[in-house]
Write a structure and sequence with these properties.
Blueprint lengths: L1 H14 L13 E5 L6 E5 L2 H8 L4 E5 L20
Antiparallel strand pairs: 1-2, 1-3
Length: 83
């Protein structure tokens, strides 16, 4: 039983946080599908990813025309403390 818990704890430590840490809010490439729906899907990190998606079903890839989100400003925590 102890060995099982030890192995499980080691596996969790190696895996760390399994949530997607690099979740993106903006992707630079969009797929415009060539069907009647006119759907545009901006979910691609690279041009090659986009091409692989539209290659068999028809469509084209364009750069994302929406601006990238502005990174929030971080508070400066300097060495100076004012009272």
């Amino acid at each position: 039983m102890r060995m099982t818990l030890l192995v499980l704890a080691a596996a969790v430590a190696v895996m760390g946080d399994v949530r997607p840490s690099a979740a993106r809010a903006w992707y630079p490439w969009c797929a415009q599908y060539a069907d009647r729906s006119g759907i545009t899907s901006c979910l691609f990190s690279t041009f090659e990813q986009c091409l692989a998606t539209v290659r068999g079903i028809g469509g084209s890839c364009v750069q994302n025309w929406y601006p990238a989100p502005i990174e929030p400003r971080r508070e400066r925590r300097g060495k100076h403390f004012y009272r």
